[in-house]
Design brief:
Rossmann fold, 18 strands, 6-stranded parallel beta sheet, alpha/beta, 40% helix, THDP-binding
């Protein structure tokens, strides 16, 4: 058998096994050495290929698509620095537990470390930021090697999805010639009804005795707090709210928890905790006996202070699988179990008359009501950053997704996303919390066909402008709301702002860019409303448009800082006046 046929059969069986194991999408960046993979993926009838020229953008496009669908997405690139450009997306995927399969083409072994072009050391290129790495064998088409390559494909999918999801890296050395021959018989190998390997994973459930012990321990104290941080299970809301109502507990729901949105009960949900936990006196009033957290650490820094100041409270962290996400360092019990099953078991194990502190939940609800009163009426027609986010959340379509950028964007969503019966999925790159790749991530999520609104700042938008090409090339529908305060607005809230001599050059970093020209270059429609009511109308108009729609809201960083501070101070003052003085 000649080289070309061996190469073709080897790669075709690999790609076919990925498809049989559940892969539906691959993001390909053009290059020569990756020709066997790229062409074979494009040939396979059950896999959709997306061609993204820049590998960094491609990595984040795949990340966004995988986040939206909760399915693995493959990335294919050539050798050399092409593979290195995946690194930021790989890090984010690992930190935020997103299944990516990085397939990097490489020079064969005899061309490594000899000065050959486009050859770098790609072995374990991503270090500990992948769940698994494998250097693939050179292509052969013996029965043994066909079994080998199918095994590696099946294992890659399983490893990416099992336990805490994450990225996997396979490195493919290829010798020339590189072009496959798709005319050979039985191109995809022997027809198999099932994948070559099948894994059956069960849901983790605590033993009945341990559930009873945990339930009795928690119910022996009165002032508990349920916290739901960033997580993706949209079914958790139903059961976690039932547990909170059974035990009379508040739920501090992060905006990315999927708990503030949906059809489940919102009676015990506290959305405004970030606003009122900024105040030391209020935090002292709310000292808990225990905290039980589901999902990752919440976005709110005020909540971080709250946890740090209560090291004596019993703390429980519930994770689906083995992992460690407890940045505070308090004494903690980790519960590795399916959170839905755990909540259901705790409800069933609870005493009929659960012991409660009759003033605990009403106190949280009263504070939350005050915070919501101010955030609901934060301004009138002035188009501030917070008002822009509030107006967006009013009109965003039901059964859609909101992809949120980091820095100020996610913090404003934390403040202004109030409970709603709309089915809105909240997505963000909160693994490494970077601003890179946000445009590509949002467009990748929108490529699934689910309506997506991307909310981000001007620096994040600028950082990934070339990500807009995918929306143009594939006619992907997405609405992007850019909050442009001409620089890094988040730094105005940090201690660096007091260093006036160097602040603007090093932290403020004003861009002074006219985004309209770039948006039109990528075939998008551009809108710049001047008043808050105008934004409502523009958003509704954009949701009816096809393709790329970008709305730019221009604000002033200093005014934004003052506006936020006045809002938080007003909330604190009202609480001190109506609650603290009544104690």
């Amino acid at each position: 058998m000649n080289h070309t046929e061996a190469l073709t059969r080897y790669i075709a069986n690999f790609v076919d096994e990925l498809a049989k194991s559940g892969l539906t999408d691959v993001v390909i960046s053009p290059g020569s050495r990756s020709t066997p993979l790229a062409m074979t993926f494009a040939e396979h009838p059950d896999i959709k290929e997306w061609v993204i020229i820049d590998e960094r953008s491609a990595g984040f496009f795949g990340l966004g698509l995988a986040k939206q669908t909760n399915r693995p997405v493959a990335l294919v690139c050539s050798s050399g620095t092409a593979a290195a450009n995946y690194f930021p997306a790989i890090i984010e995927a690992y930190q935020s537990r997103v299944p990516l399969i990085a397939l990097t083409a490489d020079r064969p072994h005899e061309l490594r470390d000899v000065g050959a072009p486009q050859a770098i050391d790609q072995l374990k290129l991503y270090g500990d930021y992948v769940k698994d790495f494998h250097e693939m064998a050179l292509p052969e088409s013996t029965g043994t090697m066909i079994n080998y390559v199918r095994t590696k494909a099946a294992r890659a999918i399983h490893e990416a999805m099992s336990g805490n999801s994450g990225p996997v890296h396979l490195n493919f050395p290829f010798r020339e010639p590189l072009i496959p021959d798709f005319s050979i018989e039985n191109l995809w190998g022997e027809p198999l009804a099932d994948p070559y390997h099948v894994w059956h994973d069960g849901r983790k459930k605590l033993p009945e005795a341990l559930v009873k012990q945990l339930s009795e321990k928690l119910q022996s104290t009165k002032k508990g707090v349920i916290v739901c941080g960033p997580q993706i299970d949209e079914e958790l809301g139903e059961v976690i709210t039932l547990l909170a109502e059974k035990w009379g507990l508040p739920i501090l729901a992060d905006p990315l928890s999927q708990i503030r949105t949906g059809s489940h009960s919102k009676a015990n949900i506290i959305e405004g905790y970030d606003a009122f936990l900024r105040n030391q006196e209020i935090r002292n009033l709310l000292k808990p006996d225990y905290i039980i957290r589901f999902g990752a650490m919440p976005v709110s820094k005020a909540y971080l202070f709250y946890v740090k100041e209560n090291p004596g409270a019993q703390q429980y962290v519930v994770e689906n699988h083995l992992g460690y996400r407890e940045p505070v360092g308090n004494s903690t019990e980790f519960i590795f179990a399916d959170p839905i099953l755990l909540c259901s078991d705790l409800i069933e194990a609870s005493a009929t008359d659960t012991i409660r502190d009759g003033e605990w939940l009403p106190l949280w609800n009263k504070l939350n009501s005050i915070a919501k009163q101010y955030t609901l009426h934060a301004s009138d027609t002035t188009l501030t950053e917070g008002e822009a986010v509030r107006r967006l959340l009013e009109v965003i379509p039901d059964k859609s997704s909101l992809y949120v950028g980091n820095s100020m964007a996610i913090r404003d969503v934390d403040t202004f996303l109030l409970s709603t019966s709309k089915s809105i999925k909240l997505l963000a790159n909160r693994g490494a919390n970077g601003i890179d790749g946000m445009v590509s991530s949002g467009i990748g999520a929108a490529s699934s066909g689910i309506p997506v609104t991307l909310l981000l700042g001007d620096l994040s938008f600028f950082h990934d402008l070339n990500g807009l090409l995918a929306a143009k090339h594939y006619h992907i529908n997405i609405t992007i709301l850019v909050i442009n305060n001409n620089g890094g607005g988040i730094f105005s809230f940090l201690p660096q702002a007091t260093s006036e001599k160097h602040f603007e050059a090093l932290f403020g970093t004003p861009l002074n860019i006219d985004f309209q020209k770039a948006i039109e270059m990528y075939g998008g429609s551009y809108h710049t409303p001047q008043q808050a009511d105008d934004l409502n109308d523009v958003l509704l108009e954009c949701y009816q448009e096809e393709g790329l729609s970008v709305i730019e809201v221009k604000t002033d960083r200093n005014e934004n800082l003052q506006w936020h501070r006045e809002l938080w101070e007003a909330i604190e003052a009202e609480i001190v006046k109506t609650v603290m003085h009544c104690e």
